[in-house]
Amino acid sequence: MAQTRNRWTTYLKQLQRKNRSVFLTWMLSYVSVLLVPILISGVIYGATLNVVKAEINRANQSILLQMEQAIDSQFKGIERLSLEMSLNRRISAFITADAALSDSDHYEIYQIANDLRIYEIANDFLNGIYIYYSNSDTVIARDNRLNGEELYDIIRFEENMPFQSFQQYFNQWYIKDYHSVVVSEENEWRPTVMYARNVTSTIMNEPGAVLLFMIDRNKLLEQATAPEEGTIIILDEKNRVIASTGDPLTEPAVQYDDLPGESGRLETGAAKSRLVASYTTSSITGWKYVITLPAAVYHQKMNVVEQLTILSVLLCLLMGGGVTYWLLKRNYLPIHMLIQSLSFKSGVAFNRGSNEYSFLEHALNNTFHEKEELHNKLNQHNNTLRSHFLQRLLKGQLDSHIPLLESFSAYDLRFTSAGYSVILLHIEHFGKFHREDEEQVNNKRLLHFLIANVVEEVARKSANAYAVELDQQLLACIVNHQLMSPAEQHKELSRIAAETMSFISDHAHVQLTAAVSAQQEGEYGIFQAFQEAVEAMEYRIVAGSGGIIHYEDLGGGDSQGSAPGYFYPLKAEQQLIAVVREGQLVKAKAFVGEIIQKNVTMEPFSFHTAKCLMFDLMATLQKVIGEIRIVGKPQDVPDGIRAIERLMQCQTVKEMQGQLYEMLELLCSYINNNREYSSNPLIDKVMKYVNDYYHDENLNISMIGEAFSMTPSYISKLFKEHTGEVLLDYINKTRLAQAKLLLTGEKYTVSEISLKVGYNDVNTFHRIFKKFEGITPGGYREVK
């Protein structure tokens, strides 16, 4: 016992160590499969038991039904015979006879007795027929004549039944029923069955006769075959045994009241004497026909089925368990060998308490992860190498001893056509990708990746294309297309550039400028095309940002050459100084715009020419700054040095022009604000009031008039006379001056700035800002 206990303890510990192992999972799976036939055997066992029970009950019910039909058929024959006898003329005529019988009455009795013999012979189910006449107290049988007391000595309903009760039964007006009675035989009372029916007299209130049919109880069960070791019993409503194939004196094993319903099955009795009773009910007499069987006999066949089922289950467990263990060991061996091999080669120890599949999954995931990392690193190097190659290809810096076609194949570049063009894309601002933190570098990379993929995808609708980053704001795209006419080439490259710029603007809010080269033939024409695109991009300073510049549209001139049509004479400079000193901003802007327009329309107008013109104009404004210093307020004079620094950062003529206009506004505002108006101190107070309350949205001429107890029209007229400026314009300029300071930073949105400077409606702010500044608030912030 101790060794067995130790063996089971060791086995349980092994199972605990393998609680996560696939070994235990497989074992449970095989055991689950093994349980399937066992469960099926259980289902078959239950179904078989039901079938056997149903078959036994069906056999018993068949016997009972056969017996019921036979007995009820005899009962119906007796009822028909009683009806025939009640219609017999002699039997019904004798009802009128009285107690003093005449000779003719005796003769009638003889005739009736003969009729009774015939009736008894006609139905062998009968053991005798009696006719009781109440009027004459006469009982006629087939071989003798009796009176009521003599009949009482022969037949009783119960052995101890009083004569008065017996006599009262025959005095009923209507009798038609079956009775279990006792008959005196050899000084003993034997139970039998009697059917009684009265014959009504034709005379009103005259007592009639009663027909008594004695049924041979031994013949009731002649046609019923009792099962082996079984007993057939007929019980009446008073639980009396009408007939039985067993000992008639033995107390019945079941009671009439214990048998509910018309038919069924009942199991009763103690453990060792337990019986199973099947029963049905006669539709004529209401008696119960019962077949009783010992429970052991009844369940004998079911016990056989149960034993066979248990035997099959044991065989399944024995044989299935052996096969399960053999298959488990055989199937686990390969995965065990695989685990050992992987553990040895990978250098990772396998814990025997772990799950083999988890170990395999972890090992495979690590392998795939390493492979993916290696693949990504190779792709990154390939992309870097290809980008470096494309940059050198564009700049004409390739090694001459390596054929271009071999280099194209090595870097997976497919140039299949003879025509080559280059599109340069310059990023004007980064839109959604603009950040002030360290994420800006990643955002720029992401934007470059997006632009490169978009332009390649758009171009590949009709040609092969490869994009490469040149610097933080410039990308180049080599377009390989079929040789075509200049017009067709111009149209196709314009489509590529336009679709790319539109997509990037719609989805990233990034503005691009495109420069397109002319068409070149052959791979070695890529360098020439790149140079043409660069020259076209330099013309962006004149054409402005956000458009498409074609090299062919430049007229083939040298955009880097001299400018023979340069226009800015000394007289023009003197006129500009005079206008600015007078503080006439509108005239000054118009004069500067006219000078720029005259120079721009003179072809060619190069980048260097534009910068020379802008610096000359800024130098003129520097002269004005030197001449307009006012004693007492030198610190308020605009800083010309800062203006020149901002001018040098401009990349287009439009941006330079904006800087000039901003300097003109500052100068003219300074000049107008520092005019001599000491003769009327009220104007100082009005201007101070505006500077203090410019942020109030209700500030207007009426509010100022109320503050100084003057009518709005009078104070406006007084202000115009002393300053030369409309009071409402002065309010707007004061607000816009503060707004421009706020727009130079990123702290507030345009809507917030509008509220801070006194404009409740942002649309009004946009309209007034553009009216005085010539640009929208958003555009002003982007320029800054």
What's this, in brief?
It is built from 26 helices and 18 strands. Helix 2 packs antiparallel against helix 8 (300-346) and helix 16 packs antiparallel against helix 19 (653-673).
What does this structure look like?
The chain contains 26 helices and 18 strands. The protein is elongated and about 185 Å long. Helices cover 55% and strands 14% of the residues. The model is unreliable at 14-18, 556-564 and 629-635 (pLDDT under 50). The protein is of the alpha+beta class and 784 residues long. Among the domains are: 226-298, Beta-Lactamase; 414-554, Alpha-Beta Plaits, CATH 3.30.70.270; 559-668, no CATH class; 675-784, Orthogonal Bundle (Arc Repressor Mutant, subunit A), CATH 1.10.10. α2 runs antiparallel to α8 (300-346), α8 crosses α9 (356-395) and α21 (701-707) crosses α22 (712-723).
**Which percent range describes the beta-strand content?**
5-15%
Helix content: 55-70%
By CATH, the architecture of the domain at 414-554 is named 2-Layer Sandwich
Q: Which class do the helix and strand fractions yield?
A: alpha+beta
Output the number of helix runs: 26
- Averaged pLDDT, please? 77
Q: Any idea what the shape is? A: elongated
Strand arrangement in the largest pleated sheet:
3-2-1-7-6-5-4
Number of strands: 18
- Could you tell me the radius of gyration in angstroms? 64 Å
- CATH class identity of the domain at 414-554: Alpha Beta
CATH topology of the domain at 414-554: Alpha-Beta Plaits
Low-confidence segments, ≥5 residues, pLDDT <50?
Answer: 14-18, 556-564, 629-635
Give the termini separation.
96 Å
